[in-house]
Amino acid sequence: MRRFNQLTSKVVALLAAIVLSGCGLKEFVHANDSRYGVPGVFDTPLDSPLRTHFINNFLGQYRITHEWTYKGCRYASYVIPVPGGAQGLMSPLWGAFDVLEQDGKTLQRVDNENLRDMSQYFRETYTTPAPISANGRITYSPDVVRTQPGFRPLCGDRWLASHHFMALSINLRDLNEYKGRITRALPHAEWRTEIINGNTWHVQQVPMDQVAPNQPNTIGAPYSNWVTEIGNTGYLMILNFGASQRSFDSLATHKAIEDLFMRIVQSVTIEPIEPIEINQNK
Fold first, then answer.
1. What is the pTM of this model?
2. Angle CA(109)–CA(113)–CA(115) in degrees, nearest 5?
3. Contacts with 39 (C-beta within 8 Å, 6 or more apart), sequence order
């Protein structure tokens, strides 16, 4: 029994490491794709349900809700119990801790005492303690930092078999600057606007015959970009859908994944937090 418990603990620790590390998840999936000899064996089934993510307090101004696949997102988050629904890691509803700004960083309030720096996802750059080598040992000091590139996706999924990917980001950046950068990279793709759930989406679509061909060691290329402003906060919500010429070998599969992406776009709600009026005369 003791040996069984030790083995169980190791398995639980491994699964926790995979869930909490985006890079670890990617490498785990690729390793198992190779192990089973079938690229895409762990791809998300196209008829899978989506999980709802709920940010109750974004900068004290907005509530944000969106869906994503069960591959998960990188928010600091917690399970919201759903009566009769799956529990734990398979719960269909997750709440993200409050998002706030402090000292030039974007943070999440994990509890009353702990803040988690999430700048690597929300901001263009972020800082981490720099390694210091002394006497053959590596140490880290908060007084010596290095700057690293940010704007990492908060949510992601990909389909190896069909060369598709999806990503969701929330970035502190100017809308016109973002559109200009994307336009320079993809000058042949036009922009349009669509209003869904009150959100004005700026949409750039690459024509199918101009989508990039397959590239070694990549999964898809830009195909459809959706971006909307989160009120007047200066932050953008960005949804990216990628494909390659290989993705169109099966138009039925391509449409199914595109429909899944559009379900996510249509799930996004951004609602102002109503101020609470306090009657001081009472």
1. 0.79
2. 35
3. 33, 160, 161
User: Cβ atoms within 10 A of the Cβ of 191, count?
Assistant: 13
Instruction: State whether residue 155 is helix, strand or coil.
Output: strand
| Amino acid occupying residue 261 | F
Q: For 212-218, what is the mean pLDDT?
A: 82
Strands 93-96 and 51-58 turn out to be: parallel
What single-letter amino acid sits at 156? G
Which H or E run includes 270? strand 269-272
Helix (H/G/I), strand (E/B), else coil: 39:
coil
Maximum pairwise Cα distance, the chain: 72
Task: Kindly state the DSSP code that residue 257 receives in the 8-state scheme.
Answer: H
Q: Residue 205: what pLDDT?
A: 95
Structural tokens at position 20: 């909490």
- The pair of three-digit structure tokens given for residue 116, joined into one six-digit string: 């988690």
The amino acid at residue 117 is: D
185/176 Cα distance (integer angstroms): 14
The number of beta carbons lying within 10 Å of the beta carbon of residue 203 is 17
| pLDDT tier, 216 (very low <50, low <70, confident <90, very high otherwise) | confident
Residue whose C-alpha is closest to residue 90's, from 70, 108, 111, 66: 70
